[in-house]
């Protein structure tokens, strides 16, 4: 038994020495035969510290036969600081010569161009090119790198974001600030009902609006218009019975759109591209009024100028000092 133990111990020691020797072996010793390689694949067939080289075939006496073959040859070592490789080669940071020119770090303070997409931006994020460097998020362009999401900041500009606000007033007026004559409920005058359901908004639900009035119905919340939406619009149905014609509106509703930084006095007025004839003024297409003949009508205006903005909207009613009517009623508002 003692002899067998000794033999086992010696065998273990020998295998340990062998493992250490292998660990210390240089790549040259590790691959003494310098395996053949396919030059069409560059250095892909070789180890990192080797390259695929053309080698003369020699005969038994050591004389070249005139034929060549390709073998993996150990790279020259070099100094990265002084770049002492042969002409046409460069020294890598870990001290091996590689054919070609060294990749340049992106230190030009410019967005990635197509030649250095493998390296990270050092100063500013991509704005013109898709994000190939996941370290910094796109700020100006939608992500086109759907394979890898931005890692630092969640994507806010990916496709699939929709503008999706709707209001049918069936749950009341919670989202709105109602000034003056604006009311939400079931009209007992004018349309005597709503476009959908039993609730809508209107200028005095139980009778004519008064003369010389200005009042807003303001959507209390802000709505962000994503840049990814091709043609954002606001659309709604209105029952219209006020003093005015397409040649001039005396009593009318305008839809005001303001950015979060604006006040209502400087707010933009929606220009209606969908409106039945006679129910907006010819001059600006911003004033809704006239007589709609006792039915509800669709109105739609573009919100394209507000892409990327956070906006607030308001319906503003204005009447002049003479002559009034049942009023203007609003239902089924959508922003999409
Ligand atoms: Ca309704
Ligand atoms: Ca009037």
Walk me through the structure:
With 336 residues, the chain is mainly beta. The chain has three domains: 26-99, no CATH class; 107-140, no CATH class; 165-335, Jelly Rolls, CATH 2.60.120. Helix content is 8%, strand content 31%. It contains two helices and 19 strands. The protein has helices at residues 2-24, 27-30; strands at 50-58, 64-74, 89-91, 97-99, 165-167, 176-178, 182-185, 200-203, 214-219, 223-224, 233-241, 244-245, 248-249, 252-259, 268-269, 272-274, 291-302, 310-318, 327-335. Strands 5, 7, 8, 11, 16, 17 and 19 form a seven-stranded antiparallel beta sheet that branches. The longest helix has 23 residues, at 2-24. The chain starts with a helix and ends with a strand. One calcium ion (CA) binds at residues 168-170, 194, 196-197, 199-200, 331.
């Amino acid at each position: 038994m003692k002899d067998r133990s000794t033999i086992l111990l010696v065998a273990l020691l020998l295998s340990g020495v062998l493992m250490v020797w292998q660990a210390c072996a240089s790549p040259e010793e590790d691959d003494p035969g310098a395996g053949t390689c396919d030059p069409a694949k560059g250095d892909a067939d070789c180890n990192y510290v080797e390259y695929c080289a053309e080698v003369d075939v020699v005969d038994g006496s050591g004389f070249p036969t005139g034929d060549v073959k390709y073998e993996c040859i150990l790279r020259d070592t070099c100094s990265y600081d002084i770049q002492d490789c042969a002409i046409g080669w460069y020294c890598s940071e870990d001290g091996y010569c590689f054919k070609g020119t060294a990749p340049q770090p992106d230190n030009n303070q410019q967005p990635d161009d197509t030649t250095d997409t493998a390296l990270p931006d050092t100063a500013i994020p991509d704005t013109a090119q898709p994000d190939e460097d996941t370290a910094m998020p796109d700020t100006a362009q939608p992500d086109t790198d759907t394979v890898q999401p931005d890692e630092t900041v969640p994507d806010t500009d990916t496709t699939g974001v929709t503008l999706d606000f709707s209001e049918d007033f069936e749950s009341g007026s919670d989202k709105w600030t109602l000034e003056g004559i604006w009311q939400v409920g079931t009209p007992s005058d004018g349309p005597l009902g709503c476009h959908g359901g039993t609730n809508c908004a209107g200028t005095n639900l139980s009778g004519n609006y008064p003369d010389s009035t200005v009042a807003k119905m303001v959507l209390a919340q802000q709505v962000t218009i994503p840049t990814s939406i091709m043609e954002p619009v606001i659309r709604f149905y209105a029952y219209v019975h006020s003093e005015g014609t397409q040649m001039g509106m005396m009593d009318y509703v305008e839809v005001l759109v303001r950015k979060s930084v604006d006040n209502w006095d400087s707010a933009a007025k929606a220009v209606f591209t969908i409106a039945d004839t006679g129910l907006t003024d010819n001059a600006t297409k911003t004033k809704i009024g006239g007589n709609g003949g006792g039915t509800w009508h669709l109105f739609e205006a573009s919100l394209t100028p507000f892409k990327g903005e956070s906006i607030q909207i308001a319906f503003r009613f204005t009447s002049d000092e003479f002559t009034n009517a049942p009023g203007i009623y609003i239902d089924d508002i959508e922003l999409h």
